[in-house]
Amino acid sequence: MSQTAAPPAAPAPLDRTARTVIAVVVLGMITTVLDATIVSVATDRLAAEFAVPLTTVQWVMTGYLLAFTATIPLSGWAMDRYGARRVWLTAVGVFTAGSLLCGLAWSAPSLIGFRVLQGAGAGLVSPVGMAMVARAVGPQRMGRAMAVVGIPMMLGPILGPVIGGVLVDSVDWRWIFLVNIPVGLTCLAWSARALADERGAGRERLDVLGLALLSPGLVALAYGVTSVAAHSDSTTAVAGGIGLGVLLLATFVAHALRTPRPLVELRHFAHRGFATATAVQFLAVGVLTGAGFLLPLYHLVARGETELTTGLLLVPQGVGAALAMALTGRLVDRGRGRTVVVAGVVLLAVGFLGYTAVGSAPGQLYLGIALFAIGLGAGCIFAPTSAAAYAALDRTAIARATTTMSIAQRTGGVVATAVFATVLQHHLDATRLPGDAFGATFWWPLGLALAAAVPALLLPRPASPEGAH
Predict the structure, then answer these.
(1) Same domain for 194 and 211
(2) Whole-number Å distance between alpha carbons of 49 and 326
(3) Do the domain assignments include residue 5?
(4) What pTM did the predictor assign?
(5) Helix or strand or coil: residue 56?
(6) pLDDT confidence tier of residue 349, bands split at 50, 70 and 90
(7) Residue 199: its pLDDT value, please?
(8) The domain that contains 384 carries what CATH number?
(9) Which residues contact 138 (CB under 8 A, 6 or more apart)?
(10) In terms of domains, do 354 and 417 share one?
């Protein structure tokens, strides 16, 4: 019966309803993902505008990150209680309102506060959107759907600095926020008309103790590790944040395993497909988020490029990611997901291996090829791991499973960025040559990419139709 081990060669095409849900979700997600990095090129301008030090301006990014992290755990419960459509409209509405207020900010504290509001909405957009897509397309068509939905997640960190550089240099810093408004309003109008009004259970109780442990734990951990990444002189901020975060998260794990309906369902990890797919995404998103910090900084510091030129030089990574996602979706739906993921991990490693040689000041063509390989690898990972995770679960479990995966992605990104930043600072302090310091640091994302090969090889093969349950 070995001939029947693979799924059907031609899964059903995506219907109009599924395509509409995917399009709405991509539109809503793209601005929230861009907004996480678009501010990075405006920090000097904001410091001058409000006459505050860079340490204060840093909270424009940190406040967004912490609010984003804090609201993710609520997404699964909120969808179960109120329905995904209502939560989606609320999340996009809050993000759009926050964008308007950020564009109207009159001081650094007001901008930081409005960025927190923005982040609170953005933290719900991604997991709710992913859950809506997963429910609309079903497991057999997940590969193609996630290949499209993954485009904002792959391209956002790359395009953010480019768009931010153009807006700051050509118009005004306020437009890095105001540009979200027409997109947000369009998404709201389209969502209200096109999405089915799926009612929630209405009586779903909130796991208050779980919320009191998980959200503060994630925020404390994120604060601690971002203090490391910012090279904070306060050991209390670093050790206290990380220590408190680990303690609260460990307590939450013990609580969640004893509670019938916890805020985040950790028992999903008993499914091999979900556990291995989440592990791959934790490591891969960590690599890519950390690289999103290292790669622009290398071109800015070691090669002396401008912000706009740096963004343009990173375009090969986005091209590679888009190409891979366009080509691999159908392979995933035809049961080749594990092969695609393993190939993606190898390509990631090859790309970062190329960047370990930057101490010898290689040409831009060489670096462009390495970036293209990194992009190809990234584009090969997201769709098949998402498909593998959701295929292991019942449809009713998707909302909370999406929350769990979003938390894993965010935690991996925050921790990896802090580690890479700390290693880079160590090498910069130890050598006078920035190229050598970056070359030594790029061994870390290479190692993390290779570590992702272990859970990638453990991803289950898809069951045959006869054996599916």
Answers:
(1) no
(2) 42
(3) no
(4) 0.77
(5) helix
(6) very high
(7) 64
(8) 1.20.1250.20
(9) none
(10) yes
